[in-house]
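Crash report, auto-generated. Payload:
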Amino acid sequence: MAESKLSHIVVLGAGFGGLTFCEHFRHPSARVTLVDRTNHHLFQPLLYQVASAGLSAPEVAQPIRSILSDRPDVTVLMAQVTGCDLAKRQVFLDHEILSYDYLVLALGGCTSYFGHPEWKQFAPGLKTLDDALRIRSRVLLAFERAETASDPSEQEKLMTMVIVGGGPTGVELAGAFAELARTVLKRDFRRIDPGRARIILIEASPSVLSYLPADLSQSAARQLARLGVHVRTSTRVKAIRENEVELESGEIIRAATILWAAGVSASPLTAKLGVELDRAGRVKVNPDLSVPGHPEVFAIGDMALVPGKDGQPVPGVSPAAMQMAKHAARIINKELASGAGPASRPPFHYWDRGTMATIGRSAAVAWIGKLKFSGLPAWLAWLLVHLIFLIGFRNKLAVLLQWAYSYFAYKRGARIITSVPQARP
Amino acid sequence: MAESKLSHIVVLGAGFGGLTFCEHFRHPSARVTLVDRTNHHLFQPLLYQVASAGLSAPEVAQPIRSILSDRPDVTVLMAQVTGCDLAKRQVFLDHEILSYDYLVLALGGCTSYFGHPEWKQFAPGLKTLDDALRIRSRVLLAFERAETASDPSEQEKLMTMVIVGGGPTGVELAGAFAELARTVLKRDFRRIDPGRARIILIEASPSVLSYLPADLSQSAARQLARLGVHVRTSTRVKAIRENEVELESGEIIRAATILWAAGVSASPLTAKLGVELDRAGRVKVNPDLSVPGHPEVFAIGDMALVPGKDGQPVPGVSPAAMQMAKHAARIINKELASGAGPASRPPFHYWDRGTMATIGRSAAVAWIGKLKFSGLPAWLAWLLVHLIFLIGFRNKLAVLLQWAYSYFAYKRGARIITSVPQARP
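Recovered output after restart:
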C-alpha cells in the first residue's frame, strides 16, 4: 500500500502515555510518527535516584528508537513541537510540518513555579535527565566546597539543602539525600562531617503526601524524621533567592542547594491549542479523552484533565497515562477497522491500582485497595513494582545490581560530578 | 602525633599515577593531601566507550574519596591547581595554599592542537568525562538530525565523521563508531541508513599505530577497513573549520563530527615551574624521577620525560605512570624511615609489559614480549586486561554485564543524549 494511502497517526511525546499508545496501536492501514524532544524514554519514577547518585543516567532511560526498532510502521523523530493547527490537522516541528488523521497529545507536564518563574534559576525542578544530572553535580559539589571552605557559616550553608514540596518527589528526594549524607558520604571527608548536613523539607499543607490517608502520611513523616530530615509542614515559601529561601514567617534559610518539587503544570503547548484548559493548563477532554470539537485529537496523561469516580481528577501518575493511552489506541484501532464514527466511543474509566512512595532504605508507604503498608513491606513492594515496570531487560539487571550493591555496601555507584565549571587556564 | 609534626606529602592529580602513589605510600609520620580538579578517578583506557555509547559515565569513573575512604591519613581536595612555588615549597589552589615536604606532580596531559588552539572548538579531543559525554551527544544528535533533514548533501554531511590521528585513541574511536553505525543504529532509523555513514580516519604518518611493528599496524588497518572505516594515511590536515576539514592536498571534507586524537602535551602547570621542559611540555626529570634542583619534587606519568632503555622516552601509558608512582612512593617511604638523603636513590627502570589496542568486536592487536597477536585472541587479551585493571568491584561487574549484553544483543545501553540545546519556550 502506498504511504499516502495509509492513515497517519501522529503521537507527540514518548513518555509513558505516548510509548504505551505506540505499543498498543497497530493497524495494517496506518503508519505512526512519534515525536519527542529527546532521544530517550525516561523512567521518571526513578529519576530522583539519578539526582541522588544512586543510578546512572542510561539506567533510567532507554533510546526510543531501540524500544520501537521492530516496528517498521513507526517513525521516530527527535524534534521540538512548536505548535498545532487543529483546524488544518497539522503539527509544526522545528524543521517540518506533519499532517495527521489522528493526533495523540502526550507531552506530559513541566515544573510550575506558581507565577514565580524567576525562582527557577535558584531552585531547579526534577523533570528531565539533564535536571537530575545538574542536581547531582550541584549537591556533590556543595560537599566538596564545604570540605575546602574555612568559614563555618559558609560551611553550614554549603551543607544545607531545602526541598520545597512534600509530595512524592519531594519526599523521595529528601529521604535519598539524607541517606546519601548520613551513610555513603559519612566516611569520605576529613574536615567536615557530612552526617551534620541539614535536609529541610517544606510543605505548605499540614502533612506530607497529603493525598494519602492520615495514618500513612504520618508514618511517612516519622520515617523521614528517623532519617534525619527536618519536616516542616504548614510552612509557606514567600521568596526564593540565590542560596536563600524566605518563609512567610519572615525566617530566612541559607542553603547551597534548593530544589523545587511543589508544582507541575501541563506542557505549554496546550495554551496554543485554542481549547478550554484548567488552571494547571490541562485540556478538559471529553469522556472518551478526545479534545472537544476535535474527535480526531486525543489528550492523555498529564496534559489531560479527566474527572475520576469521586469527582477528583485522575492523578498525574504513570499508570493513569498508560491506561489512557490504551483507551485511545483501542478507539482508533476500532475506527480504522470498522469505519465506525466517534458517536459509539466508550468513555474512559480509571482503575486505581494503589499508590506508593518510597522514603529510603527499607522505608516507604503503600496503599493498595484496602491495604495499607509502611516500612520494609512497603519498600519491598515498591522495589518489585519498579523493577517490573523498568523498560528493558538490560536496565532491569543493571538497576538490580546497583541496588543490591548500594544496599549491602552502603556505597553509591554514580557519585560522579560532570560539567564542573571549566578549569582555570 | 600532632599534625604539624607530620611530614606533608602533596600529590597533584588522581589519575593512574597519583592514585597508585597514594596506595603505595603510607608512613606513620606522614600525612598525604591528594588534589584533583574532579571528584573522580577516570579509567581513561575505556573513555572512548563512553563517547561511543557503550558504557555510562559512572562505569568508567570512581569517586576518589570512596577509593581512599579507609585511609584516614589521606585528605582529598577537589580544587584547581593554579601554580607552585618550588623555592618556598608551596602549591597554590583556588581557595588555599598548601605547604609540602614532598610534592608529587601527576596531573597528566591534555589535548594539544600543535599551535592551532582555534581548532579545538570544531574538533574536540577526548580527555575527560565531559569530553566523552559531549562527543556522544554530538554524534547521536547528528544521526537524529540526518533523519529529519531533507537535503541529501546535508544528510551526507551529518552522516560523516572525521577522526584526526591514527594512534590508539583514534583507532579505538573509529572502530567503535563504525560498529555503532553499522550494527546498533542500523535497524533504528526509517528515513536514513546509518550503515551508509562515512567514518574517516586521518593519519599524517604512513601507518596507523605507527609505534607497533609493521605487520601489526598493517593488520590494524585491515581490521579497520573490514569495519568500514576509510583509513587515510600519509594525509595531513591543513585547517579545521566548523563542519569542515581541509587537507594539505586542498581536498575539503564536510563532516558534522570532527574529533581530534592527534596530540597530547603535558599539563600546562609544567610551564609555570621554571624548570627545563621538552617540546610536549614534559619535565626533564632526573633518573630517580625528581625535578632537577628539587629532590623533594617528583614528576611522574605524562608530566615527565623519562628516557627508556632504547633512548626513546617511556611512553605515556598507564602502566608507565603506575610504575613511576611506585618508584617515587618507595623512595619517600625509605627516606622518611631512615633519614637517608637523595644521594642514595635508585634510578627508575621502565618494565614494558607489552602494548595492545582494540579496534572493535573481536578485533584488536597486541604485542607482548616477542608475541604478536591480532583479531580475536588479541581482543580477548585486551578484554581481560581491562577488566582486571578497572578499579572497583561494582564497576567490573557492571562493565562485564554491559559488554556481554552489547556483544550478544548488538545493542548499546548508553545511547542517551543529554545536554541537548534547551527546548524552545
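Post-recovery validation: Chain B is about 30% helix and 25% strand.
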